[in-house]
Description:
Largest sheet: 6 strands, mixed
Distance between the termini: 12 Å
Number of domains: 1
Radius of gyration: 16 Å
Order of helices and strands: HEEHEHEEEEHEHEE
Strand content: 25-35%
Bound molecules: guanosine-5'-monophosphate
Shape: globular
Helix content: 25-40%
Amino acid sequence: xxxxxxxxxxxxxxxxxxxxxxxxxxxxxxxxxxxxxxxxxxxxxxxxxxxxxxxxxxxxxxxxxxxxxxxxxxxxxxxxxxxxxxxxxxxxxxxxxxxxxxxxxxxxxxxxxxxxxxxxxxxxxxxxxxxxxxxxxxxxxxxxxxxxxxxxxxxxxxxxxxxxxxxxxxxxxxxxxxxxxxxxxxxxxxx
Length: 191
Ligand code: 5GP
């Protein structure tokens, strides 16, 4: 997606350890006009998939998914939670996820009442690095007996291998910007 790539080149900052900071338009301050175009592009790529629910993970996936949902007939968005709270009661689907950016393992959790075998799910997230967040969400969709139509990612860092793991799990993956390298502080996109 050319608009997104240009924005990454203009405003993205390469940090230590292969991290790309895009907090001026995606991860902290959000450019909702850009997010709307991102949602439109996800719809174009998954057109005809008869999505009934969009699943994402807190926190950065929420804004992306909520805006994208409006391009899918305003289907419900469910965001998996990373911490247990009193508001999260009843039966839960859970999966373990190791966070690349924070270097911790946590349980992602989603209430069983919101997802079941009748659903066709699109999973959306901001970044794909080593694939742990997506594999956790795919696991939850499978636990629910729902159909996974695929995953939509805003920025995939191809060099960290997560895309290969998701495809090896038999899941369709659509990434709007695919980065091949962040070496020497420079963003290089895959061809
Ligand atoms: P994975 O589970 O694929 O290793 O990492 C995906 C998650 O880690 C995303 O949900 C995202 O929040 C975070 N993440 C991974 N790499 C980056 C990065 O380069 N920049 C930012 N801002 N977040 C990242």
